[in-house]
Amino acid sequence: MTGPLVTAAAYLLGSIPFGYLIVRWRKGIDVRTTGSGATGATNVMRNLGMAGFLATFALDFGKGLGAVLLASRMTGGDPGWVAASAVAAIAGHIFPVWLGFRGGKGVATGVGVFLGLAPIPMALVLVIFAALVAAFRYISLGSIVAAAAFPLLFYAFDHPPAALVAGSAGAAVLVIASHHANVRRLLNGTESKVARRG
User: For residues 37 and 12, what is the distance between their CA atoms, to the nearest angstrom?
Assistant: First the structure.
């Protein structure tokens, strides 16, 4: 029963709505009623600035990394249960049981998950993300492409067990699917861009 319990724990860990709690604590409002309606770091930044972004990103990142490390330790590194826990942590962030299954988009939690699975491919994914945001100024585009690239780089560099490849692909699909509204805005040219410095 260890595997199912660890996967359930990963979901519950992922579902802790840090962004929601931070904005509720600092401003007394539901962050989901503002901006993009998500609980993630980018929407928190719209309410609390860079400090709010950094705090939320770090905590959401920690959820993903912690879920993978916990699963690896508790199941003896079993690829299937590590993969299941990786997906569960991101699902928990996007569909948190505490908030009526309305959460964030899974990017920061996904970064933690992917780092826990494969540090070198994750570093390459961050380079891809940064290059795309610098070139096109769309955070959503960088997030979507980076998420899609991770399973491919993971397979190419680490040749992991099939279960881990499948888990990383499932995690990436969740992150990409959570950006469906951003994809529509990208296609019709109404997606918000990051302002250039200066």
Answer: 21
